[in-house]
Design goal:
Blueprint lengths: L2 H18 L1 H16 L6 H26 L7 H17 L5 H26 L3 H20 L9 H8 L1 E2 L2 E2 H19 L1 H11 L1 H6 L4 H27 L10 H11 L11 H20 L4 H44 L1
Antiparallel strand pairs: 1-2
Length: 341
């Protein structure tokens, strides 16, 4: 490649890279901004704190990502967390079940709740957004009934290690988050099942014609979401050292914002795990930085809402741009065929 060709292609390459990794540039920009405002922000302890605080959110967002990539939505994950948190804590504290048994039951209940969402969406032939809008209130009601609106304190230190312990100086919750992210990324990028998930979200009818069992795929995806959400719940409860029915609700909004911000389309068929993690970290850095500089909780709500609106707007802009490009290509192809004939 000569100098002239390099000069022409380099700006295009930089623009392409900037679009692809724009979310990472946003994260770096936020870190730089808050570091300039407050030296306290730019410290190893604070970065470890951010990762520890956001570890359970990242795990839950990964679970939601599977559903969103497949073209669905789950608004009930916060209330799934409420039910799993209360049930798991009750089994350990009130019924004195061994910690591994209580955790296994909690994870199983998470899978069951996800399967209920998937089955309802399939049988009622209604979009999962509406289904989970209904099931979220059901899960919340069950959580309050079984807990009798009581908080559960004094969980075993061995259980709290999951959320509070360290291994070689690294928080165990962060290690668990990394393992979950690697497994999820492998499933989506290196397996046929992952390709089916992208196909399902990209074009459900085309996936069906290609031989994909649509209903089975939806059930599995919602079950996986419930499983990851249950893992996130265990981490959250272990970190807090207590649980009640208010544990979890609100997480669904953060996960949805992070997923869209990280490049997962509301229409499905697109997105990567690294993007979701970056999206969560952007929200975490935003929240942490605003706290450090003295801004309250309510301005954080406003900031997160604006971030969600910006992410949805950008997603819509990208989709419309692709449609316009595809139409231009179709017109060119039609013109060529007409000229040839």
């Amino acid at each position: 490649m000569n100098t002239q060709e390099f000069t022409k292609t380099m700006p295009k390459l930089l623009i392409r890279l900037a679009k692809k990794y724009a979310i990472i540039l946003v994260l770096i920009g936020l870190v730089g901004l808050f570091s300039a405002i407050s030296p306290v922000f730019f410290s190893w302890d604070n970065f470890v704190n951010i990762f520890t605080q956001q570890s359970y959110v990242i795990i839950a967002a990964i679970g939601l990502s599977f559903v969103m990539i497949a073209g669905g939505m789950d608004l009930s994950i916060g209330y799934q967390m409420s039910l799993v948190a209360v049930l798991t804590s009750m089994l350990m504290k009130w019924y004195h079940l061994p910690i591994p048994v209580a955790i296994i039951i909690g994870l199983s209940v998470g899978v069951l709740l996800g399967l209920i969402n998937g089955l309802a969406a399939i049988k009622l032939k209604v979009h999962p957004l509406i289904i989970t809008l209904g099931t979220m209130t059901v899960f919340q009601g069950i959580s309050y009934i079984i807990s009798k609106s009581n908080s559960i304190f004094g969980l075993d230190p061995a259980f709290k290690f999951i959320g509070q312990g360290y291994v070689l100086g690294i928080p165990f919750s962060v290690i668990l988050m990394i393992i979950v992210a690697l497994v999820a990324s492998f499933i989506l990028n290196k397996t046929y099942f992952g390709r089916y998930i992208y196909a399902l979200g990209g074009n459900e009818e085309a996936a069906r014609l290609a031989g994909v069992n649509i209903d089975k795929m939806k059930l599995i995806v919602f079950g996986m979401c419930g499983f990851f959400v249950a893992i996130a719940t265990i981490v959250l409860v272990a970190r807090a050292g207590s649980a009640n029915s208010a544990t979890g609700p609100g997480t669904e909004f953060t996960c949805m914002t992070a997923a869209v911000l990280g490049g997962i389309s509301f229409k499905g068929g697109e997105g990567k795990i690294w993007g979701v993690i970056t999206g969560v970290l952007i929200l975490g850095v935003l929240s942490n930085g605003m706290q450090i500089i003295g801004m309250g909780t309510y301005p954080q709500y406003i900031a997160k809402g604006l971030v969600l609106l910006a992410a949805v707007g950008f997603d819509t802009y990208q989709k419309s741009g692709k449609k316009r490009r595809n139409k231009k290509i179709d017109v060119k192809d039609t013109t060529k065929i007409a000229s040839a004939s």
